[in-house]
Amino acid sequence: MAMRGRQRERLFRAVMYVLFAAGFLAIVLVADWTLIRRNFFNVDLAREMFPDVLLIAARNTIVYTFLAFSFGLVFGLLLALMRLSTIKPYRWLATTYIEIFRGLPALLTIFLIGFGIPIAFQTRWHVLVNITLGLGIVAAAYMAETIRAGIEGVPKGQMEAARSLGMSKTQAMASVIIPQGFRLIIPPLTNELVLLIKDTSLLFVLGTTPATKELLKFGRDLLNTRANATPLIVVGVVYLMITIPLTQLVAVLERRNARAR
Amino acid sequence: MEQASAYAIEVRELHKSFGDLEVLKGIDFTVAPGEVVCVIGPSGSGKSTLLRCVNRLEEPTSGSILIDGEDITDPDADVDGLRSRIGMVFQQFNLFPHLSVTRNLTLAQLRVRKRSKREAIEVAHANLERVGLSDKLDAYPAHLSGGQQQRVAIARALSMDPDMMMFDEPTSALDPELVGEVLGVMRLLATEGMTMMVVTHEMGFAKEVADRVVFMDDGIVVEESPPQQLLQDPRHERTRRFLQLVN
Question: Is residue A44 in a domain?
């Protein structure tokens, strides 16, 4: 009986492999490869995109991400500390902020910063300010919750030990609790960074000049003018070249965190 | 303003409740300068809470606590300054895992005592030598055994030059073979004349080192006397029953 069971298992696996091969073969045979190559993998068009796709578009994507992430981190830490405050109004304020901006589409915030405020107050901020705030305001809301979890994840005895040495609450937070909390949340913060990289693609709504295009806008404009999808493939690959190393890094860090505990 | 007090620690009519649960039901307790007092009793008897009230890691519900004659339950009391004079050693060591051994010992010296980095490091290294860990200056806590971690924790407290040391079940989280090295350091401190309050289950240590043993049960001090008497010939039935259980 045992033998029969194993045979059946082997037969099942063989059938699955055959199915896979058949499906793969069907796609290869049916697809119009000339058409696909011309529209998605046009080497000449791809070559034209360099070096601008890296020097302008990818660079802008990275700069915008960095700005928004830095703002989100600093403001997120402030919000996290407010949420943990013993003073109620601060807690309410932080909670309200976090709930609002986690609940709204990121695009709404970007429009609000880029158009809502300039129209209302008849002001114009520098485009980098709009970008930093447009993405950073939402990022701060998410990061605040992550940072709070990190701070709360530090064992209670750490605060007690620091206080028993005569350190004030602020000193203990700054030299003992927050450094340990951040160590715990490096993986989720890196995930946050990856999300932000992708969200920079929403910034096109603020309007761009050739010098301020980020990756997706850069690819989309070429798609329109050249009526060809190759630019999207190229910028897609550039995105992945940035994001996949980061997600791999997260995996490594998570493994290391798991070992340390 | 400071009146001379006969006691390093003087606790009067101390009550402490957590919600509806009254953990300390009127404690009178003293430790004289240079005295080593061991507090024993079943778990839940309130002995750790008493110790934690003394440096205000717990807020007393009522009663008064005087440290060197200074009332620390006063709302205007300088709690941080007070704590920096009372060394505290925890059951779980509570070393700072993100800092090296030396940095564990210098952090509060720099931030609280405002010592120069050089002086702080000198003090740290002297205290590590005192607990026999001169070879672990740059190690991180995770790479030390439990006994070594607890000795580092003692050295960290000593680096603040405290007037007294408090130990909250310092050997309860240790593997049996590591208990001796920690008790050895504590014995050394006692012979050096350090004022010590020790919550412990180590009856051998209490018998040998303590000047006085205090037995607590159910939130009150049941009896206190020199170790020989309390451990061998207790007056109260509750004490007798407890000692039979632990021996």
Answer: yes
Chain B neighbors of A171, CB-CB under 8 A: 111-112
**Is the pLDDT assigned to residue B1 strictly greater than 50?**
no
pLDDT band at A52 (very low <50, low <70, confident <90, very high): confident
Contact status, residue B83 vs residue A165, Cβ threshold 8 Å: yes
Sheet order of strands, B9-18 included: B21-31, B9-18, B62-67, B70-71
CB B69 within 8 A of CB B93: no
Provide the domain limits for residue A103. Answer: 36-260
* Subunit contact B55:A164, Cβ cutoff 8 A: yes
ipTM for the whole complex: 0.92
Closest alpha carbon within chain A to B110 = A167
Of A166, A179, A183, the CB nearest to B83: A166
The shortest CB-CB distance from A166 to any of B94, B96, B160 is to: B160
Q: pLDDT digit string (tens) for B177-214? A: 999 999 999 999 999 999 999 999 999 999 999 999 99
Answer whether residue A12 is part of any domain: no
The pTM score is 0.83
The answer to whether the bond into A51 is cis (omega within 30° of 0) is yes
- Per CB-CB distance under 8 Å, the chain A contacts of B57 are 160, 163-164
Q: Find chain B residues with C-beta within 8 A of A165's C-beta.
A: 83-84, 88, 107-108, 112, 156-157, 160
Q: Is residue B114 within 8 Å of B167, Cβ to Cβ?
A: no
Q: How many domains does chain A have?
A: 1
Tracing tokens 């791999």 back to the chain, one arrives at: A248
Position B98 scores a pLDDT of 92
* Residue in A165, A180, A183 closest to B84 by CB: A165
Of A71, A186, A200, A203, the C-alpha closest to A127 is: A203
Q: Is B57 on the interface with A (CB under 8 A)?
A: yes
Look at residue A208 in the predicted model and tell me its pLDDT. 82
Please check whether residue A29 lies inside any domain of the structure: no
Confidence class for position B226, pLDDT limits 50, 70, 90 = very high
Determine, for residues B83 and A176 on separate chains, whether the beta-carbon distance falls below 8 Å.
no
Output the domain CATH number for residue A41.
Answer: 1.10.3720.10
* Contacts with B156 from chain A: Cβ below 8 Å: 165
